[in-house]
Amino acid sequence: MPEETNSIDYVMEKASGPHFSGLRLDGMLSSPPSSSTASPSHRSASASDSNAPKQPFVIGVSGGTASGKTTVCDMIIQQLHDHRVVLVNQDSFYRGLTAEESKRVHEYNFDHPDAFDTEQLLDCVQKMRSGHSYQVPIYDFKSHRRCSDSFRQVNASDVIILEGILVFHDQRVRNLMNMKIFVDTDADVRLARRIRRDTVERGRDINSVLEQYAKFVKPAFDDFVLPSKKYADVIIPRGGDNHVAIDLIVQHIHTKLGQHDLCKIYPNVHVIQSTFQIRGMHTLIRDKEISKHDFVFYSDRLIRLVVEHGLGHLPFTEKQVVTPTGSVYTGVDFCKKLCGVSIVRSGESMENALRACCKGIKIGKLLIHRDGDNGKQLIYEKLPKDISERHVLLLDPVLATGNSANQAIEILIQKGVPESHIIFLNLISVSCYLLMIFLKVNLYLLQDLARV
Ligand SMILES: Nc1ncnc2c1ncn2[C@@H]1O[C@H](COP(=O)(O)OP(=O)(O)O)[C@@H](O)[C@H]1O
Ligand SMILES: Nc1ccn([C@@H]2O[C@H](COP(=O)(O)O)[C@@H](O)[C@H]2O)c(=O)n1
Ligand SMILES: [Mg+2]
């Protein structure tokens, strides 16, 4: 490896890309899982197909007319600002009325599954899932026809939201979805909203809205929409007013999308969910103009986050306490057999955060120094005597070649620390070198992953 790729500057430079957020998958693997372990609709990348394009995350949003589907989708899209998201409306796939049908429009049932061209909708979602753009028809609710000469081009994206009253009706369409949401709003509220919307936006008068509602909309809701509610993974009562549900859904999508390819391949890698606070601090510590005081302050804050997350992955035991009011609270007790080991010198910058979180924690040290180019290493170690009985938080904030980390893990294993008891805590890392240590530790927790 060229000398300059060894330096901290190089790592910091490389780590200036996006901040990946990730998910710790349960179970520990010492080799990449085969692609067959995940569901076909959103399978993980395996070592051999890590260059394959990522499949988009498809969300279906259904619910009765005027339940707030479009409003909920808009809110989700707004909150997913980090990702490319597109909305496909089932309404766009309404079949245009023939001249004959148009003459008797009041007899036409727009709420029956046959009113939609489901084959075309299926084609659209299938193409978009495979990364192609699609020319989506434009439907006019006033003329009940499609625009004959123009389309809306919908480009390939990370997330596709498919919204409509009957998107859960056809099993083939349902099967393309990774997540299904049903917006559940009281029927009276929906009717009131529909009257207002259709008179204001869709060129209808109140009588025709009420007539259509009684003749077609309500019966079709009972026959087709409501029975499809059972397919939903998430039901949102009160639609767009339910901020808690929308937040939870957005968090879930973030987590699913945030899995960096490496996290998918190596379930023991966990990248902390990025927030604007975290990004802001990473921005500050990269700024060449930052003062030493601020650099230390913001690095400390970031390190503290990594340490707190690391502690959250330790085993715990159940514990009951009696509260001042005399009731019994069932909680958990921290893991007692714990220690830190810092890789000298940079690892020492994480010690204060660890001490601040774990009162009286023992912290050992490992110094690994390359002696010339002949592969000889000088090693200094000062570790707790009973380290083999402890869970070890291995501290190294900046990782370039991975050599020291690799050596440190080897030493801990030689000292009798089981692999599953080692959690490697890291702030900034150059990804391709991680591979050397992935296979050895239980959990690799990092905050910022550089793409190289
Ligand atoms: N939480 C809400 N409070 C008040 N009005 C709402 C709310 N959610 C939606 N609306 C209004 O109700 C009408 C229908 O909402 P929309 O999101 O278009 O429903 P859908 O897509 O399910 O038909 C729209 O005019 C919208 O502005
Ligand atoms: N030409 C049309 C087409 C559809 N409708 C009604 O639209 C409703 C579906 O749209 P939402 O935004 O309310 O989900 C459906 O209930 C149809 O009755 C229409 O009135 N005219
Ligand atoms: Mg709508």
TrEMBL record:
Q: Which residues belong to any copy of the Phosphoribulokinase/uridine kinase domain?
A: 58-244
Q: Name one GO biological process term.
A: pyrimidine-containing compound salvage
* Domain Phosphoribosyltransferase: residue ranges: 274-430
Where are its TM segments located?
Answer: 423-446
What is catalysed by this protein? uridine + ATP = UMP + ADP + H(+); cytidine + ATP = CMP + ADP + H(+)
State its Enzyme Commission number(s): 2.7.1.48
Q: What are the required cofactors? A: Mg(2+)
Enzyme class per UniProt:
transferase
Q: Which family does it belong to?
A: In the C-terminal section; belongs to the UPRTase family. In the N-terminal section; belongs to the uridine kinase family.
Pathway recorded for this protein: Pyrimidine metabolism; CTP biosynthesis via salvage pathway; CTP from cytidine: step 1/3; Pyrimidine metabolism; UMP biosynthesis via salvage pathway; UMP from uridine: step 1/1; Pyrimidine metabolism; UMP biosynthesis via salvage pathway; UMP from uracil: step 1/1
Listed A to Z, the keywords are:
Allosteric enzyme, ATP-binding, Glycosyltransferase, GTP-binding, Kinase, Membrane, Multifunctional enzyme, Nucleotide-binding, Transferase, Transmembrane, Transmembrane helix
Q: Where is the composition biased (Low complexity)?
A: 30-50
Indicate what this protein is called per its UniProt record. Answer: Uridine kinase
One matching Pfam family is PRK
GO MF term (any one): uridine kinase activity
Q: Where is this region: Disordered?
A: 21-61
